[in-house]
Amino acid sequence: MNKLMITTVLLASLTTVSAQKQATPAKAKPTMEQRTEERSEKQTEAMTSNLGLDKDQSTKVLGINTRFNTAMAEMRKTNLSEEERKSRSKALREQHSAELKGVLTPEQFTKLQTLEQERRVERQGEKGNDPAKMQERAADRAEKRTDAMTEDLGLNEDQTNRVQTINGTFAASVAKLKNTDQDAAGNKEQMKKLREQRDLELKGVLTAEQYTKMMEQRKAKQAEGLQRRGEMQKRDPAKKPHNE
After folding, report:
1. Tens digits of per-residue pLDDT, 19-47?
2. Residue 115: which residues within 8 A CB-CB, separation 6 or more?
């Protein structure tokens, strides 16, 4: 009788533990708003430390950084042309800088500009074939691409997580390919295979309507690119298109 009771208690305990594990929800992927908020907070913490901001300045700078990062994230989701995107990005950065200048002291603003210039120089030096940096930039591109797809195609949480994995794998493979000594023809062929593999995997995650919309958007952007190159060719006939 005692053995039966012990066995029953053990089975009940195991069942409870198993149920608790199943009830524990999977960790959701942070939303674009959450990532923007986290980025703004880290940016403000660094500025507070590097520039010696007081509490009032830190609060105001957090608001400025949040508005800037949110505007940049929203801009990336649009279908702007490359030229329009660069123009919009420049305008947002200039506005961001002007707002910061109104909060910081002249000494703090000068130091901020110096630090930003140092980072630009450092990034220029990192644009070589440093595998770690290339992978880091690839991960950033994959995340931005997934954010845009989630918004444009109306992906649910499960789709977003799976698409992020696909985009991350593709971006990492492209970065690795660019760091090889393979000839241009070999690179082009390998890139084609990577794109086909990515699209095949995306097709298995998206609905038929979402996949069709994605391909239509891609064709529209390619058409815009061809149109821009044609306009550039008309303005500067001596300049050959990239594909020649």
Report:
1. 554 544 545 556 778 888 888 999 999 99
2. 50
Domain layout of the chain by residue ranges = 31-74+89-113
Q: Distance between CA 131 and CA 172 in Å, rounded?
A: 10
